[in-house]
Amino acid sequence: MPPNFNHRLVDMQEIIPAISAVAGYVPDYILTNQELEKIVDTNDEWIRTRTGIKERRILKGEGKGTSVMATEVLKQLLSERNIDPKELDAIIVATVTPDYLFPTTANIVASNVGATNAFSYDLTAACSGFLYALETGSNFIRSGKYKYIAVIGADKMSSIVNYKDRNTCILFGDAGAGVLLERSTNGLGIKDSILRSDGSGGEFLYMKGGGSVNPASHETVDKEMHYLFQDGKTVFKFAVTKMAEVAVEIMERNNLKGDDIAYLVPHQANKRIIDATASRMGIGEEKVTINIDKYGNTTAATIPLCLWEWKSKFKKGDNIILAAFGGGFTWGATYLQWAYDSK
Description:
Strand order of the largest sheet: 1-7-6-4-5
CATH architecture of the largest domain: 3-Layer(aba) Sandwich
Order of helices and strands: HEEHHEHEHEHEEEEHEHEHHHEE
Helix content: 25-40%
Number of domains: 2
Structural class: alpha/beta
CATH class of the largest domain: Alpha Beta
Largest sheet: 5 strands, mixed
Low-confidence stretches: 1-12
Number of helices: 11
Strand content: 15-25%
Distance between the termini: 48 Å
CATH topology of the largest domain: Peroxisomal Thiolase, Chain A, domain 1
């Protein structure tokens, strides 16, 4: 073992990644519950009481994919932090609705903003994608090799939702949001993360067509295999348990009580799941960021979208817990201390 090995380990452990900018983008078009009443057999009261959703945003326009939203997010991040695109080291886009299988959406976004010195790639972990990407980007910062990492969650869920399926079309919307990561200058930042997965749950939330098992064909299109499928009751049961468990676990691991938490930023899948998580954590409604009523479930975008909308309320040093559950199954929680006073 080299004589300076332990010294180098200590140095690496002292590097704390921090969020230095937050941005978000939602399309203009609003799809209300009342409009959905005209498309499928449902009604506003039924949707609101079971999900908490009143409306969601839809990206309209020929040839517009997820990269459109992710590009706007990255432009905002660069502007907020006042850095040149060429200073970016990496761009990670968490998404299950990429523009194409390849090139990656992140490659397209990098090109759109002129981030010619950055490496870029997509990460797929469904609704937990942002947390997976955030930990990945954080580790790049912790390595000491990189200065600026952009982490974006973006999904055009309307592209894979079957608007004849009353159980799923009411849930999802389109949006993008993200953060810029860099080395902390004040000891505040991303402190801990717990990420989990269980592939045995894949059959309950998936899209059957379009991959190497069922490549696109007339048959897969006719069988509507290119839309997402969800066994709602099973997914709810897993989500309401796992998201709460992992949020509590990360609190216990960091010796945090409910009173120590300034905000819970949960994945916006279902208001009842969010309420159950907050209850297990021992925190009140006033500490929970919620925008599911306006945007529905935007998959990888929900958590950063909440960070974007609530950033003016966050104070430097605030203890914040992020928690998510998604298809795969995937789930996780992140503990961070907010690193700056937002404008």
